[in-house]
Amino acid sequence: MILDEASQSDILALTALLRGKEVLVVGDGKQVSPTSAFIKEEAIKELKMTLVKKHPYPDQVLPGMSIFDLSQTCFGGARVYLSEHFRCVPTCIAFSNERFYNHKLLPRRLPPRSQRLEPPLLDVFVRNGKKDKKVNQPEAHALVAWLKDNLRSDPSLRDASVGIISLGGAEQARVLCKLVLDQFTDIEIARHKIVTGDPSLWQGDERDLILLSLVASPGERFTVKGKEAEQKFNVALSRARDRMVLFRSVAPRDMANADDLRVWTMQFFQREGKAEPPARASAGPARSSASRSATLTSQLCDWLAQRGFRFSLDCAVGGAVAIVEDATDDNRLCVCLDGGAGATLTGWVEERRAQIALEREGWRFHRIWRASWLVDRERCEAELAAALAEASVRPAADGAGSSGGADAAAASLSVTASPAAAAPAAKRKATPDEAAAPAKAPKKGKAAAAAAAATTEADDEAEVGEVMSSKKQGKQPADRAQPAPKPPKEPKEPKPPKEPKEPKPPKEPKEKEETDAKQPPAKASPKEKKEPAAKPPPKEKKEPPKAKKEPPPPKKKKKKGDDSDSDWEP
Q: What are the DSSP calls for 149-174, one per residue?
């Protein structure tokens, strides 16, 4: 057994619940409930005294209480809270969400741009309006005249359904109904489904366009507040799907009590009605990051705003933190941030299920892990740019008629690297710092050449040995005739991490030079007998160089008994 709109049903609906084995009671305690008006207080007290002895919850079955209130008391543990709201656009439900539901409602409706009525809130002030016996005739005439003019001149309202609600009672509603019948034909009333009444008649109903008549005028001293008044205002201000228009003849400063529900309503329309919709307000230049809190959502919004995208933050469709819309078309993309503090696997699974259901209706999603954004933000931005281009969502800077809108968006959003980093490592040109590094090598080579030139020119044999050793290692020795060697040619494309090593003389010629520097400066000749003290250590003993020009080749051996060369030693 399912009982819908249970908050409007009194105790008489209890008999229907007895027919079901399982019962589902659906209602909202914040909306219009049965009234105890026109019932004597003595009768109510007598009924209560009778029920105290027979019923465990006598207060819940008295006149003015609903079957929904009784169900909450009896089965409070089985209560399920429905937080998703699919009727109104976020701006139209904002008042009820703020005042009556403590921001627990999650708006889930955001129509395409071509089907949207902007702005969603309008505030119309009637200057000559005055209340007379619960009726404000000038305000009623102004409301009907505005409706007649806009239905015939505004193409976006051609097929819109219309509702008129009086916030001042049934008397004003009857005046409005008479004016509508006089000013509109039957065809127009049927096409736009025009209905007029007070909040209690609008429970469970909705329209695309809702017109509200405040009825109040300056000079009133009574205050509209309390549970019953809150229920009526909550119903009245949550019936509009796309637009609400408030007609008033009084200003907030003219009211006696600041806690009056009518004051709250006027302040809401003055505040929200002048502000641009979120999608348009976000299309302008981005504010500095210092003015935003350092959160991932604000970083994402900054990134979108800097590139001229229009986006909305008020509608959390499928867990999206932002819905990015095309500047001219109905294309849009839901951007979701997964993970983070407080995230659970159950919540993520529910968002994924909602995403699958919405994708069947044409919605498109792009999900980003918060950890990935922190670790590799450039990659996440590039993937988001590609998703926006694939969904044909263009920023406001792009023209409406430009060809290749997706390609243009991708070009404007692509994350470009520096020229040096974009080129391959083996073919890219050296940066100025890398190109200047090889130039430092010749300075060290000059110092080594100057040290080599300081060796005495008398060590011809040692110099020849140095030449032979350098040729074996493929290096060129320093020229004696020049004060400094010719600097090595710079490589055309040196590798960036390594600098070319400076030319160093081989180690063995160095040791030879140091050994020869200790010997006397006289020229050494193979004919002269060497002193035992002047002989090098056995481990460094070297054969005479074979490339010597003046002495005979070392391959030519002399006989041991030859007297002409008695100083020869084997």
A: HHHHH-GGGTT--EEEEETT-HHHHH
CA–chain centroid gap for 530, Å, is 89
pLDDT confidence of residue 54: 73
**Helix or strand or coil: residue 197?**
strand
How far is Cα 158 from Cα 320, in angstroms, rounded to an integer?
A: 32
What is the three-class DSSP state of 25? strand
Q: Which residue has the tokens 């641009």?
A: 276
Using alpha carbons, select from 452, 439, 428 the residue that is nearest to residue 500: 439
Quote the pLDDT of residue 524: 46
- Judge contact between 333 and 297, C-beta under 8 A: no
Residues with Cβ within 8 Å of residue 359, at least 6 apart in sequence: 365
Residue whose entry in the numeric block shows the structure tokens 């800097």: 306
- Of 122-126, 303-307, 434-438, the poorest mean pLDDT is in 434-438
What average pLDDT does the segment 56-63 reach?
Answer: 74
User: How many C-beta atoms surround the C-beta of residue 81 within 10 A?
Assistant: 5
386: Cβ–Cβ under 8 A, 6 or more apart, which residues? Answer: 410, 413
* pLDDT interval class at 416 (50, 70, 90): very low
Residue with tokens 């005028």: 217
CB 496 within 8 A of CB 435: no
Give the mean pLDDT of 492-497.
55
The CA-based diameter of the chain, rounded to the nearest angstrom, is: 161
- Scanning the structure block, which residue is given the tokens 């600041």? 258
